[in-house]
């Protein structure tokens, strides 16, 4: 199968129900981009100490290497739908890979902490576009009959990356210098780009081109970035920047909501989407899932290292069962997603996450490693049972031309849930550490009660998902 020019390509004939080798190959190619972007969000976390030494910078300054990437991702996601509509899905995806690889090379060549932070912004802009653009393109190619099963394979990648990122980062730093934290992306991205040009069909741009929503872009992306920045400052105990950031961020987001409801043009993210069943319930589930997944991935390595004195590598190994559980859960979902109502799968997944989180509320009693490993595996299975069914129910009930913007909205919520949830949990943890003093384990245990609260909130949203399977 050879590629065709983006503007001349036409959508393939309606596919059969069977997920064949050709579609799986396309899914594998597109998931490489998602894997690369989501892995890089966590792979650098274990290199913070090394980067502090290399650039003779403080931990507070070098922490912006991670924060800048996250803020850039949050800022880029809302534009993914418009870019895919304007330039075509494959072309946008390939451009995102190029920007991400350019940012990776620049990061490896950084000469100071400031230059590294700037180059991480470039990398994050490309990384923010890859998951949403890839999902929308894959759903468009697969068609409604096959979306559920193929998305169940793709959706597991964001769950695996935060688990294996610290392991990969630790392995790189044990054998090579710090620039390889970024150069490792080059072969993955190059292979993905070459294969995409050869095997991924070119879905044409939207027939009716809309103007870019400048006002919405000026409010939404900066508003999200400023809000996350404000929450990060709360965790660092900087009251004035925190108050200004949170207040300004919320005000800009409120302004975007008003703009999105009033404008006659197509907004960057249409707030009215969230009022359409089952989009609102699906959005809430993904928002809280992001907070739970990334929040736990943030809390546990800190606990293992500060509370138990483990190395980064040992902490990563203890997190691995969550990734294994997620892989096993994706197999289960792949076999049942077209047979069981989405609500049943999602509620069952949330129950498993709840069950797997309870042991962490008892960290003050030092539960054995075997219980922690089992709890993480159960959480992994539960997480895999949420993302794919939620995306399937939305993608299978929305018109093909609306897929890019819907995918952008869903990925935005998952990203915002992860970033805001992590920042909020960091604030809670900081307060509990202050109150608990030297009792570090109990401070982490207290914080995990908030993770349980996030899960209960997700369950409330899941009860509003459809009882029946998606219509074909």
Describe this structure in words.
This protein is mainly alpha-helical and 472 residues long. The protein has helices at 21-43, 48-54, 59-62, 64-76, 80-87, 89-108, 113-142, 147-154, 157-175, 180-183, 185-199, 214-235, 239-262, 279-307, 312-336, 342-357, 369-395, 403-436, 440-462. Helix 1 crosses helix 9 (157-175) and helix 12 packs antiparallel against helix 13. The protein is globular. The two termini are 27 Å apart.
List its traits.
globular, 74% helix, 19 helices, mainly alpha
What global shape is seen? globular
Please state roughly what percent of the residues sit in beta strands, choosing from under 5%, 5-15%, 15-25%, 25-35%, 35-45% or over 45%. under 5%
N- to C-terminal separation?
Answer: 27 Å
Taken in chain order, the helices and strands follow as HHHHHHHHHHHHHHHHHHH
Tell me the number of helical segments per DSSP (H or I, 4 or more residues long): 19
The level of helicity is: over 70%
What ranges have pLDDT less than 50 throughout 5 or more consecutive residues? 1-16
Q: How many strand segments?
A: 0
CA gyration radius, whole angstroms? 21 Å
Largest sheet: none
Mean pLDDT, all residues: 79
Structural class: mainly alpha
